[in-house]
């Protein structure tokens, strides 16, 4: 239950606001701009942070995720596959290469480069020499040069499970891979935007040759996603890949030195230490050195916060300046109002109201005004965001589906309260000091 | 202790309020000026007292000391026998609400409120809280007491001077005070309306309320049970 004093303050404060609508409106106008500035800065910073975070998370993984990189040697792919199979708290991405299009031809973007740079690499026909860690060097046999043809080269990523809980891929069209259905003989693939662009641009035949696979396959494209990579990539289920490539290809030393071979990338939910330890132990058991197994926690937010902090502080400083002008406005109107209401305040004290409560009423009025203004500013901010998204959302895919951040709402309410207190404090003190006897006698 | 007063029909057990040797000095920018000098004053329940005096004689200052608007520099103030001379502001406000009803020469009605809301002002003062229905009943009773219940929804600007003063009296009565302090309540009214207002105030004493009336009007003063005259800060 509210106390009598609090109720009295609210009732009288409400009466005061109703009785002086124009004054209330005038003090709200200046305050509105100040609160709106705070809301806009806070919302802008939150949205920018989320957009940047989403971009970072697309590549690095969601904040808190444990990522692991394991060399694809000495049976490691088999161990990883076996351990990750059927799990939802951890997913392995096994990377390889594939060529989509005419068989036996040189792809348009040889090496899986972005299509913007396709054909600009030139040919290097000199000898290729690789040296091992002991300094023993061997010359590698040049691969046979293939004729140019209608094919594109993509990075192929086979997944043991749904990666989206760890990497928030944004759907562009179609649908994502389903992992709870039976594997299909025609592997279902999802393209990233660059791969989709290649297929759209070059109209290659629907045949795919996976590096290390025995046969060409005819994939079914189920969808396109935005994955944050500039190189063409395709995603598929590992069990569907195994139909055509029964054994996990192991990386040879030469592959590793060329930057090729099988890449094992792991994504684990936070707190999966036990799984991580077990995996490390098994990999160590087959001879993978500990220093080649890299596990780390993704700290996307930390990275973003340090980048955004300075920018946010600058804008917040500017917003506070505008808010200060709003406070000056409400203070000005408040002081004028107290001067006008001297008799009312003296009378209220005469009929038994304490100085404190009288000050509380003046503060209640400015606080109510501040809160009302904050509500309007928050509403205007949220509406403005919706309008901006409608107008510019298509240009900034990372902003699609963005909701008005609650932090901006909280900042607006706090700004309204602070402005109410700052703008009402001096008028409240003045009101409390009005001498009853002098006023009532005048 | 039993006291007998100059109004022979009234006999009461203990004074409602008692001032002993009250002195008030006005300290302004110039020389300090003694407004009240060793004033003794007593009011009993059901008693009406008129205070006469020229302008600047200290009548209103005395009333503001009685009504706890201000503090005396010297002397003692007893209310129901309790010494409240050095009462903290918060308790003084509570006593103003519970014990006193004030009527002023200027009515001090808030123009944006109706007559009923103006009367209710005395109930919405942070000294306790009663439900809206009860408050409304109290307000209507007070307006009924001064004979203007039918004007409850009227704004002050639509009321005559006499009606406005009666609203102000209803505001003073709504908390059923023990003492009414009226500072020249008929000063802004014509004779007939002034008489009506004095009648309304006198009615309150018949219910046991004390009345202190500051006035320049000897006719109104004579209607009171006791008449005192202040001159140079002292009662004659």
UniProtKB/TrEMBL annotation, chain A:
GO terms for molecular function: transmembrane transporter activity. Keywords: Cell membrane, Membrane, Transmembrane, Transmembrane helix. Belongs to the ABC-4 integral membrane protein family. This is Putative ABC transport system permease protein. The keyword Oxidoreductase does not apply. Residues 318-436 form the ABC3 transporter permease C-terminal domain. Its main location: membrane. The chain crosses the membrane at residues 25-45, 313-335, 356-389, 409-432. It is a multi-pass membrane protein. GO terms for cellular component: plasma membrane. It is found in: Cell membrane.
TrEMBL record, chain B:
GO terms for molecular function: ATP binding; ATP hydrolysis activity; transmembrane transporter activity. GO terms for cellular component: membrane protein complex; plasma membrane. InterPro entries: AAA+_ATPase, ABC_transporter-like_ATP-bd, ABC_transporter-like_CS, ABC_transpr_LolD-like, MacB-like_ATP-bd, P-loop_NTPase. Pfam families: ABC_tran. It comes from the Bacteria. Gene3D superfamilies: P-loop containing nucleotide triphosphate hydrolases. PROSITE patterns: ABC_TRANSPORTER_1, ABC_TRANSPORTER_2. This is Putative ABC transport system ATP-binding protein. It comes from Lentzea albida.
